[in-house]
Amino acid sequence: GSHDRTSLLPFKAGIAVMALKTLVKHPETPLRIVPVGLNYSNADRFRSTVFVEFGDPIQVPTDILEKYKAGGSSKVEAGNQMLEIIQEAHHDVTIQVEDEETRKLLWGLRRIYASGVSERDKLAMQPASAEEQRRTRFQIMRSLADGYARVQHLPAVQSLVTKVRKYHTLLEAYGVRDHQVAHRLSSRSPVTEILLWRLLILSLIHISEPTRLLSISYAVFCLKKKKKNHKK
Length: 232
Fold this sequence. Notes:
Layout lengths: L13 H12 L10 E5 L9 E5 L7 H9 L1 H20 L8 H16 L3 H7 L4 H22 L3 H20 L3 H9 L4 H41 L1
Antiparallel strand pairs: 1-2
Helix pairs in contact: 1-3, 2-3, 4-6, 4-8
């Protein structure tokens, strides 16, 4: 793969050949291949989120191993079949999209989907640990990526994508993030209430201003009187 791509590069045959050769020379070896996927939220950004997903261990099928032992064209076919199994397993633990723009779009859709879940549903769906929460976010993202690849040509989906991109443009223009918008909309103190509260504070400041001026004038008067008495 590659850290700066949004999809996996084609796998090389070496990993399949190593596994098959090992089992031919040492058939008693309990060899398993564990697929590991590294999924970044922003691969080019320092301290960005990364989710490491481990797939189910892969055991070399007996029929493929026998083909490899037969040699010739069967050996090549066995290597290709084993490589296909390994690559398919890695697709299950990684998020595959066409380009960076699509990746950002899907991350945005995931956050919008998460912000649209009601508080009661969130409590019911809340995983037990932070690790399970990250796993849930990853699974949602992967489902969106798989589904989008199949339905992106539909007019309804294209209309939704246009709206999401306009929404992201507005966020960039105002310098805010979508989770801040979701928090403000779900807050118990709406914008109107906050505005009224601040206006009340300002009005109290204006009311107290004359009293403050009188206090300052009285302090200046006392200071001058003190100096005059001191000269006497």
